[in-house]
Amino acid sequence: MKSLLILFLIILSFYSCDQSSSGNENVNGLEVSIDTVLIDTGEDFINLRSGIYFSGLSNDGKYLFNSGGTSPYLERINLETLKFEEKMDFDEDGPNAFGDYVYGVSSDVNNNLILTSHFSTSIFNIEKQKLKKYLLIGRDFKGDQLVKREQFTSKIIPTKDYKTIFGLVQNHDTGEIFFAILNEETDVLRKVKLNGFEKAKDFTVRYQQGRGASVSPQNTEIVRLGNKLVITNPVFSKIAVYDLVEENLKYYACLPTLTASEKVGNYTREVNSREEFNIRKIEIGKEVTFLPLMRDSTNNQYVRISILGLPKMNEKGLPEMNDHKVFISILNDSFEVIKEAAVANGIGKLFSTPIPQKPFMKDGKVWLYLNVNDELAFVRLALDA
User: What does UniProt give as the signal peptide span (predicted)?
Assistant: First the structure.
């Protein structure tokens, strides 16, 4: 049985200084404490082929569930005891089937699991019983229609009674993104265009290879934070927020002071070689990238990470992304940035691996994935209140 390892503890303070004229002049500095913990797996092991990119938290924040992808299981990790608890094997077929390829795991307000696969989204309880299945592809809707090249994208968020779902619809021709509300009982769909979110298409790179293609997209994401649905895109700081109580959609600039508020470069979207594809991805990554907002319920605030790529030339004279500058922003309930900091050197390496980071908040700390000799560990960033 492996014991829990506390690898390091560093106290660092950083303060914003060069504030942009378009930013919030009342932004303060932020103190960040860093420590690292290792998950105790006993005699078992956790599949880290995709890191924790296909994982999600339980609604109470106690567990992390890591998907087996094409294999029908979830790995349950207790984030309070820092121990691997169980490999949850699901049925491959039948009424409680796992799904063909589960790439999205989240939880709802009932603390049930939402498993998203290519063709459907299913609700499971902790006993692995399927409570509900949503089919959104090839379906006829009333009200607003899905026109050619439009489809639901990203995960969906159901209401407590599972009668209504919220999600995103993307038009793959125009790049337009819509906020969608679907009544499951009446099949009535309502779409609301998200103004300006089509800009993300200008920063998508595609390399066609015969009948297949490699695509580096800028995906719009939706997440439930309390009674709000927060919609973000990595290209810009602006967010859209749907208030579940007031039932309205609003936009917030969320202007940072330590970085630009959006990507601005002009890039070739269709490339002719793998080498050019990688170069364009790196060029786009040199500009600021905004990660989705997180809710710090411990300190009653929102938290956001943004990154700037720091590529270097390799021995072949080609750029490689091997480091990032990392920034943390604290936002108030009006989604205004009130504190910001550049995080310590070394943290950027965590954002420079082939497996994308998927940060999450727990107990007032940002948790970042770390692979230590094929064992699961987390670097935790504690933020001052």
Answer: 1-18
11 class by beta-carbon count within 10 Å (0-12 exposed, 13-18 middle, 19+ buried): exposed
Q: Is 163 helix (H, G, I), strand (E, B) or coil?
A: coil
Question: What single letter denotes the amino acid at residue 372?
Answer: V
Residue 192, beta-bridge partner list:
179
- Which two three-digit tokens encode residue 140? 């006829």
**Strands 188-193, 142-143: parallel, antiparallel or unpaired by DSSP?**
parallel
Q: What is the Cα–Cα distance from 5 to 39, expressed in whole angstroms?
A: 8
pLDDT tens digit sequence for 134-148: 999 888 899 999 998
Residue 356 carries which side chain, given as an amino acid letter?
Answer: P
One DSSP character per residue, 38-94 reads E-B-TT-----TTTTTTEEE-TTSSEEEEE-BTSSEEEEEETTTTEEEEEEEPBSSS
Q: How far is CA 218 from the centre of its chain?
A: 11
DSSP string, 332-366: -TT--EEEEEEPPTTGGGGGSSSSPP--EEETTEE
Of 12-21, 57-66, 244-253, the least confident: 12-21
- Alpha-carbon span 190 to 183, nearest angstrom: 9
Q: Starting from the edge strand earliest in sequence, which strands make up the sheet with 55-57, in order?
A: 55-57, 63-67, 73-78, 83-89
148/359 Cα distance (integer angstroms): 35
Tally of CA atoms within 13 A in the half-sphere of 367 that contains its CB? 26
Helices (H), 210-306: 274-286
Domain positions in the chain are 39-132
Sort residue 37 into left (φ over 0), alpha (ψ -120 to 50) or beta.
beta
Give mean pLDDT, residues 65-92.
Answer: 94
pTM of the model: 0.91
Please give the average per-residue pLDDT across 269-293, as a whole number.
96
Which residues does 255 contact at the CB level (< 8 Å), separation at least 6?
20, 22, 23, 24, 237, 261, 337
Question: Mean pLDDT across the chain, nearest whole number?
Answer: 90
